[in-house]
Write a structure and sequence with these properties.
203 residues, alpha+beta, 2 domains, four-stranded mixed sheet, two-stranded antiparallel sheet, 6 strands, elongated
Length: 203
């Protein structure tokens, strides 16, 4: 919410009082600025709500601790509908880029947690030998083990050193799935599952 710079001080004071009464002062800043021409003279009335920080509720958030993707910004923890890209930093340091592109309707921090869960023997076998339908296509469902976690366990002895970036945010599922498929076709990430013809399968 932005407050025009021409409002009087009593209105700004009312805004400050309302924010404090609603107990939003922890998440909001009210500053005052004003511009004359193109020159900034002093700050005008702007209510700037701070983004959610995991330190407020979760002290062990893996997304907060993760590094940002070198090309794309790190998503906010509570953001939903994210199409994201994860990169393995260990492979990156060895000049062998391994990326994973995915999407999630849930808060992104929960999906990122899924990529850090160590797989059981059964899940590892499911990852190595995914089921196929009668046409020879892989059957991908919501219960498939994380390809990122499998990579970290198989290639790096269970060391998870990952960076994450946000490609886009789409609230509608069909739009999000289509964007994910286009991104997989464009970037061809190594960690995404592939069909027998080598085409990347969005998961």
């Amino acid at each position: 919410m932005q407050i025009p710079c021409f409002v009087d001080k009593s209105f700004l004071l009312t805004c400050k009082t309302a924010i404090k009464v609603c107990k939003l002062d922890k998440y909001a800043n009210l500053v005052v600025q004003e511009t004359v021409g193109e020159k900034l003279v002093h700050k005008c009335g702007v209510v700037d709500f701070k983004p959610f920080k995991c330190s407020d509720k979760r002290k062990k958030c893996l997304l907060c601790k993760a590094s940002e993707h070198p090309k794309y910004p790190k998503p906010k923890c509570e953001q939903v509908g994210v199409i994201y890209v994860i990169i393995c930093n260990i492979c990156q340091r060895n000049n062998d880029q391994h990326e994973y592109i995915g999407e999630s309707k849930r808060p992104i921090h929960k999906r990122f947690d899924d990529h850090h869960k160590k797989l059981t023997v059964a899940e590892m076998n499911k990852h190595k030998n995914p089921k196929k339908n009668s046409r020879g296509q892989y059957i991908i469902d919501d219960h498939m083990p994380s390809a990122v976690s499998a990579h970290c366990m198989l290639s790096h002895d269970g060391v998870y050193d990952l960076s994450i970036g946000q490609l886009s945010v789409k609230r509608q599922e069909d739009t999000r799935k289509a964007y994910e498929a286009l991104a997989c076709r464009k970037f061809e990430p190594k960690l995404n599952r592939r069909s027998e013809g080598g085409q990347v399968i969005p998961t």
